[in-house]
Write the structure tokens for this entry.
Amino acid sequence: MYGDTEIRSHDIHLTSFSVFDENFLSFAKNLRTTKPKVGKMKICGPKLSLCGLIISVWGIVQLVLMGLFFYINSVALIEDLPLDEEYHSLEDFYAAANRAYNQNAYNCWIAACIYVLTLLLSAQQFYMNSRVTAN
């Protein structure tokens, strides 16, 4: 015979049949006693978060400097510009080169900003891992 077991937790009512085993009933009883872990958000371990910190700092430094060198039209970086092989006049070449230098500088700075986001995420993960291992 299937009887009803009623579990009350504040205003939550859970009706189960005797088909469910003891584990489910104990789980349902403990629903109100378990507290969710809010704010932990531990995604990666301590070694990966430290690696992310180091790579992010290096990426920020490198991309900011490369963006600066592109912005001041460094001749050493001309091979990295998407330029055509031939131009009709020298002014057309200078205009295309200036546009390409500026575009590459902005691309480097945008990538550096993305690295700032990964730095913040890695720093948060490193902090969370250091708190867990200290406790």
Summary: The mean pLDDT is 83. Helices lie at 22-29, 46-71, 90-134. The chain has two domains: 1-34, 46-134. Residues 46-134 form one domain.
